[in-house]
């Protein structure tokens, strides 16, 4: 079986490192590529289509909502599952994240629960 390729888009280096290392330690079939913003995200998507995207909502320059819209506007990328990650816990963010994305996950992340949700979404 090939590795589950996950693209993680988050502007916080510590968050990228902890989620990448946590997921890869839990499951050697997971490979996480991390990028720090929208430009790097689109450059990576051009190179390789992941099985799933972990997308931060609050980022400088372009929000996760806008990145999501641009991904969904591209025919090659529009079917990639997206899990929103955010420190925002207000009802608007939660409702929008659950409606727009495949899932919504609050930071700080419970890495085992995140892995379980990733597995469920990829297996669908």
3D structure, described in words:
46% of the residues lie in helices and 21% in strands. It is α/β, with parallel strands linked by helices. The protein has a single domain (4-123), classed as Response regulator (Rossmann fold). It has a 5-stranded parallel β-sheet, with helices on both faces. β4, α4 (91-100) and β5 form a beta-alpha-beta unit. The protein is globular.
Shape call? globular
Strands of the largest sheet, in order across it? 2-1-3-4-5
Query: Low-confidence stretches at least 5 residues in length (pLDDT < 50)?
Result: none
Q: How many whole angstroms does the radius of gyration measure?
A: 13 Å
Whole-number average pLDDT? 92
Distance between the first and last residues' Cα: 16 Å
Structural class: alpha/beta
SSE string:
EHEHEHEHEH
Give me the CATH superfamily. Response regulator
Number of helices: 5
Question: Percentage of helical residues?
Answer: 40-55%
CATH topology: Rossmann fold
Number of strands: 5
Count of distinct structural domains: 1
**Name of the CATH class:** Alpha Beta
Sheet with most strands: 5 strands, parallel
The fraction of residues assigned to DSSP E strands is: 15-25%
Under the CATH scheme, which architecture would be assigned? 3-Layer(aba) Sandwich
């Amino acid at each position: 079986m090939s590795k589950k390729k996950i693209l993680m888009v988050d502007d916080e280096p510590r968050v990228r490192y902890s989620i990448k290392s946590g997921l890869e330690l839990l499951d050697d079939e997971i490979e996480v590529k991390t990028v720090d913003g929208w430009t790097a995200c689109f450059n990576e998507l051009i190179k390789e289509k992941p099985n799933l995207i972990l997308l931060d909502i609050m980022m400088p320059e372009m929000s996760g909502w806008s990145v999501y819209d641009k991904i969904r506007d591209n025919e090659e990328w529009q079917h990639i599952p997206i899990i929103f990650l955010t420190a925002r816990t207000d009802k608007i963010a939660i409702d929008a994240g659950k409606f727009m994305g495949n899932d919504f996950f609050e930071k700080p992340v419970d890495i085992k629960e995140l892995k379980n949700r990733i597995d469920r979404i990829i297996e669908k």
